[in-house]
Amino acid sequence: MIEVYPDYIELFSRFRRVDDFLKIDIDVVRDFKNRKTGRFEIDGRGFYIKKHFECGLSAILDEFFHLRKPHIGAAHERAVLDRLHSIGIETMRVAAFGQEDGTLSRQRSFLVTEELTNVTSLEDICKHWPAKTPAAAFKRAVLRKIAEIAHTLHDNGINHRDFYLCHFLLDISDQAGGYSSRPHKLFLIDLHRAQQRPAVPFRWRVKDIGGLYFSAMDIGLTRGDLFRFMNLYTGKPVRQTLRDDSRFWKAVRRRAIRIYKRDFGRLPKICM
What we know:
alpha+beta, Phosphorylase Kinase, domain 1, Transferase(Phosphotransferase), domain 1, 2 domains, six-stranded antiparallel β-sheet, 9 helices, about 40% helix
């Protein structure tokens, strides 16, 4: 089964089988177990493809062993991307998707997304903040946008599982003046591990926000910045969320510090 999205039908007209997409020559950017990701061009337009090959029965059993629903192949990420677009979160545009029939362990599939251009990760932008303080309006705009994305994601039953600054890409097409204006678009990427449920369980919300906090611990945030995020994420005044959601915020802090200590072998210089 192959599905090419309307804007790309003519561009991919010569690809008629899953195997045709899996044979596309790519510049590999990630090669992990049964999944290969890379960039390619058609008629001067850039795309990325994730090629999923047979995973074997052991991979599925491992997911069940860890009490997780198996997310094997490209169908899961395609569904998440479509869902994000429907709830107003900017992300990659799906161009084509396909998977073969058959048992899950032997299934091959692919997902093609259009390349995001004129973007830079927040990790690359924010790492310069301690040495060069950003414009206050820009920092507030970035914090607001991240908090809005986190709130919308969790409010719609989706958790990312790799919710770090590096997976937010800022549209810099109109930021030639040094990021002084409000960011128009912030894209959330790397969603192949995301989960969808009627509601996000406590521990998975902690994992997302704890991961985000960990990735922002060295960018020079103030207590005011953290309180602003808490207010925007919960929709509550800071005093109220610190009272009502104290268990959550304490768990977020513990998780962020634990990851930081694991990765850097020391405690962070934190302000909350």
